[in-house]
Amino acid sequence: MKILSFGSCNIDYVYSMPHIIKPGETLSSLSMAQYPGGKGFNQAIALGRAGAKAAMAGNIGAEGRFMLDLLREAKVDPSLVRVTAHPTGSAIIQVDSKGQNCIIVFGGANRTLSAQQIDEVMSTLSPGDMVLLQNEVNMLGEIVQSAKSRGLQIALNPSPIDDALKDIDLKMVDVLLINEVEGNALSGKEDAEDIIKVLQTRYQIPCIVLTLGGDGAVCATKQGLIKQAIFPVEAVDTTAAGDTFTGYFLKSFTQTPDDPQTAVLRAAAASALAVSKKGAAVSIPWSDEVDAFLESHKE
Of 80, 81, 96, 97, which sits with the fewest C-beta atoms within 10 Å of its C-beta? Predict the structure, then answer.
């Protein structure tokens, strides 16, 4: 099975801050670094490093060409990424002394998808393949409709939450991956199990994964509800934690859908490794690193 991440490619400008800046405040950063990022790109890298048969589709500007090489290095097929006349999407990220972050995103080339491009991308996939989507590109509803009409599986990480999601029929989604904020926005509930119950009842989604920060994650499938604790590590930068979790979960879950426990375990371990390093895509571990980490944490 091929998993295609159809989404955003960004160049991240990461500022290390004593604390997240407040309205009206001017504050000097401790350092600044530039990294490749974007939720679509990060999740594609995570899929590739996890060992999935992965591909990436989306748009970049000329200054983003280096990202194509990074996809290849992660064993991700970059042939469906177009170089356009528009600037590559970008993000300004503040990371505080505890590793927490806040992010401002500029869409750039990510917001220039066309119906023709969507058709061309989808024609490269076969029934049963999976399309992994986020919410940092335009025409998301059209991508979902096209994927479903071609018999593709759809995994959705609806981040960031905004009005564009009103155009999405979540009943078409096979795997929904959300955090607490997104879960609350979609369900109106605060409690994790209540969020999942509402979404299951309303949309009949076969697999829902809800990440809960320091409280770990829960996964709801036909096998029932699975809870996974975090692996305690010193957090340096949480920027790509969710994207790492998504890629690793999907690689494992699509191979062994009757074993979601292993999928959430490996995803949690990969996320722990990712938050212990600076940067977004560059912090995502390889599968053998996750294997060694899990071996060292056996009881």
Answer: 97
* Distances 220 to 158, 176, 191, 194, 205 between C-alpha atoms, Å: 17, 10, 14, 12, 9
Element holding 102 (H helix, E strand): strand 101-106
**How many domains does the chain divide into?**
1
Percent share of the chain, pLDDT over 70 = 100
**Residues 16-39 pLDDT 10s:** 999 999 999 999 999 999 889 999
Q: What is the pLDDT of residues 180-205, one digit of tens each?
A: 999 999 999 999 999 999 999 999 99
For tokens 């002394």, the residue is 97
Cα 195 vs. chain centroid, distance in angstroms?
Answer: 20
Tell which residue, 98, 107, 115, 136, has the closest CA to residue 235.
98
Structural domain range at position 171? 2-7+39-56+63-78+112-296
Q: Which of 12, 129, 174, 243 is catalytic?
A: 243
Single-letter amino acid code for the residue at 220: A
Taking only the tens place, the pLDDT of each residue in 138-187 is 999 999 999 999 999 999 999 989 888 877 899 999 999 999 999 999 99
Beta strands 153-156 and 101-106 are: unpaired
Q: Decide if 87 is inside a domain.
A: no
pTM of the model: 0.92
**Is 134:40 a contact under the CB 8 Å cutoff?**
yes
pLDDT 10s digits, 34-92: 889 999 999 999 999 999 999 999 999 999 999 999 999 999 999 999 999 999 999 89
CATH of residue 74's domain is: 3.40.1190.20
Known catalytic membership, residue 243? yes
Contact present, 231 and 297 (Cβ < 8 Å): yes
Dist CA 230 CA 22 (whole Å): 30
Q: What CA–CA distance (Å, rounded) separates 229 from 139?
A: 36
